[in-house]
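hi!! sorry for the late reply, been swamped w classes. u asked for the two structures so here they r. pasted raw, havent cleaned anything up. first the sequence of the first protein and right below it the tokens
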Amino acid sequence: MKDKVDTPTTDIAQLAAQALASATAPERVKEIVDKQIAKTVENAIEQATRSFSPFGQDLERKISEALKINDLNLPSYNALISGMVLKQVETIASDLIEGRLKEDIAQMLKNAPKSVKLSEIVEEMRAPHECDGGYGEVVTCIIEREDPRDSTCFGPEWTIYLDDSAYYEHREKTSCDITLRIRHGLKPDLNQDSDELHTGTISSIRDYTGVIASKGGREGFTTNRPYGLAQRLLAMYAAETVIEVDEDEVCTSVGDY
């Protein structure tokens, strides 16, 4: 026996009833309502934010003020970007500067001797002139000693004028590139005669540009990086190298002068 197959109806009334039942099914009604509400909200927002609407005009004004748009010039935006870049650069630069300072100080302390004679410093100053075939007085070392008022407790001090590129007479001492102040400081033995003391540490360094370093007062460590003789002396300053003023008249000439 064959299965019974329903033949599609052609009854218009019945078809209409079926279509109505399908269209008014709960899930179908919900779908239509959701779409209609979404469309209604979208239209309302579009109308409210159009340029000619009060809200749209206010929104455009707020955006314009935030970006400061003026002939495609965006200073507020530029300032924001510049600030971000500057902050990043400062972060990177501070790390580089800190690392550079650590390297410089470590190198300075490494190169500085614990003690040295003034004559040895001047000998280093003369060496390049001797290698270049120089003759006669080629560098300057002028020594001025002074004893503090309280010589019972404190040792002597020296002002030393140095120049590794030219020779100057005593009356021309201010023309020298570098001026050192060497201070013995507090005597280890108060009964010792100051005339027997010939050592001290650098208390200040001054070159032709001004003070490089100074202990005490308002003058501090240099922000400029010195070179050559000034750099070597600055290393001795930082390491508190003990300098012996071993001669009153240090040799400043080369050759058979």
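now the second protein. again sequence first, tokens right under
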Amino acid sequence: MLEKLKRILASAISSKNIPESKSIPTDRFGYSNFNTHYKSTIPRNPSYRQLREFAKNPIVSQPIEAVKDRIAKMEYEIRPKVRGRKYTKQIKLIKNIIDNPNIDQTRRKFEAMILDDILTLDAGAFEVCKSKNPNHPLFLYPIDGATVQHVVPMDYTDIDGYKYMQINDNGNTYFTRRELCFLSKNNFTHKPFGLSPVLKAYDYIRYYIEGVDKTNEDVSTKTSGMLINLGETATSDEVDKFREYFMNEIEGTGRIPIVGGTKGLDTKQIRSFTEDALYQSWFNLLITMVCSAFPYPVEKMINVSADRSTTEDFETRIIDELVKPYANLLEDAYNTHIINALGFGDILEFKYVYEDSESLKTQKWTRFNNAFTTGTITINEWRTGVGFSPLISDYANLAGDERKAVINRDLGLAGFNGVGNIKDTSDTKNKKVSEGGG
């Protein structure tokens, strides 16, 4: 009855055939429910709502914002795959779609929403809608990744077959691979769900808390690990009285036990005042677990003095290890659902432009300068390597001695009258050159 109702509701939205299949919700992210005797301080199988609340924690949100902010500030380019071709009209059309995905959002806002779902749930999604506007043939609308379900089994031979389903107030809406883009960084063959860094951080903390709880439970059922010695002169009556006093007046109250008189006053530290007692070590451990899940430099969260070189190293690690993998997801999405969908996949591609650190810029400049000076690379190879646009010149694609020889031959410089880069010094040819004003 439920399957019949599902098909009826979906048919009111789409005229396509509704698949005879079941859908797998993304709420559990591939986790199974376990009947376990271990108690857990926090849920073992968090829902997407719980993960989103967990992601709002200041410690967890910092690496999330680091990815979103850096990708939002990055420039991009639509590169021709064929050297020498410009495709100005096609590039302008693609940029209009990417910069203005829909009437309400800019590219930066659109990407931030998608990235937030990927980092939190490893389930980002947007709908691709066709338009009759020739200057804006496609519109992109972000979709809550938690509402998208995967239709299984999927007929991979039919490109127009349903692959995704979204639950909404009007029923279930089905989407083909062309109509909806689903982004997941960590993919598996045995389930359609990924593994987000927020979920990994959540599990790290849960495992630690459960371990601490289990340890505390074991300790509470065993004998104490500390003894108090009242000295060899203490009588049994004095020991009993001190035991009663300590249990009734001191234990669990936080009071300082006073023993003996004022003569020979002595104090012994019986409670730790180190950072362990102040939970500073737990706070740092929490930061370390979260940073390991993304990954994100721990030093960016903990106050560590850093010079310019260290700061650049942190930024390079963030870009290479954290930002680029998620930027690659968006690159693939744009190339597949915009450029390929418009029929330009053979000639154009979308790429983000990464800004090198100052030290990397210096190293790259020195390396390309040395290669050009020794004649190993051409002018255009040098210009492209250091970030300049290539020149439109026959000489710019020649290297070293070959470039010099061609220039001398074409311009008649340095008395050139030979073959290749070897000058002909015969009297007859020298005479003709001098007579010609060479």
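hope this helps!! also noticed smth abt the second:
Strands lie at 22-24, 75-80, 124-130, 138-143, 148-152, 162-168, 171-176, 180-183, 348-353.
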